[in-house]
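FORM 12-B: Structure-to-Sequence Request
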């Protein structure tokens, strides 16, 4: 049975994330990640092949983590409850996983990966947001009986734009969420979903 690696992939990615958040994109060099994680430079290159691949994996890990609870929450038997739960799952992800949430709030994909990803991960990166798009479209159909642009845009506002808008400045600024923010967000989400217009 092979011995588990001394330095885990998550340890290396966590070190890169901390460098990005504390000092910006240029600070996340292989040498700095090695020093911060305690992993030898050779081990990092062996694991990822390049800094570019490491950063792509870091970004994708944060996106997959944020999507998992969102998609699961939206599958509630009641469509309205599913929409509210999906929106609140974003709030909860940001509250419970602030480092990943700050990474997504502070850096756009283009900042870390480029506008046109290439290489072996290009296809995976191109499809990265499909689970959210499918979930939002399915919610629109369940809530309003249609997949029209208007219905999908309304659900997107309620379950995605509102929660990220509510927490974004706190994430980027590194400040605590105000008390009552979750409750206010829930009220706003329900108001958009229930609007008869």
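FORM 12-B RESPONSE
SEQUENCE OUT:
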């Amino acid at each position: 049975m092979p011995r588990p690696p001394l330095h885990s992939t998550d340890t290396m990615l966590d070190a890169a994330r901390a460098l990005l958040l504390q000092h910006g994109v240029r600070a996340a060099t292989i040498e700095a990640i090695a020093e911060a994680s305690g992993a030898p430079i050779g081990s990092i290159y062996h694991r990822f092949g390049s800094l570019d691949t490491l950063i792509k994996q870091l970004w994708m890990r944060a996106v997959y983590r944020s999507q998992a609870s969102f998609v699961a929450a939206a599958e509630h038997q009641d469509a309205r409850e599913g929409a509210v739960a999906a929106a609140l799952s974003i709030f909860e992800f940001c509250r419970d996983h602030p480092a990943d949430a700050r990474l997504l709030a502070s850096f756009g994909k283009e900042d870390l990966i480029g506008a046109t990803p290439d290489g072996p991960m290009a296809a995976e990166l191109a499809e990265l947001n499909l689970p959210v798009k499918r979930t939002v479209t399915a919610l629109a159909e369940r809530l309003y009986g249609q997949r029209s642009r208007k219905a999908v845009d309304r659900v997107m506002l309620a379950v995605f734009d509102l929660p990220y808008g509510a927490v974004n400045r706190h994430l980027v600024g590194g400040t605590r969420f105000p008390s009552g923010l979750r409750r206010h967000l829930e009220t706003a989400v329900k108001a958009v979903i229930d609007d008869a217009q």
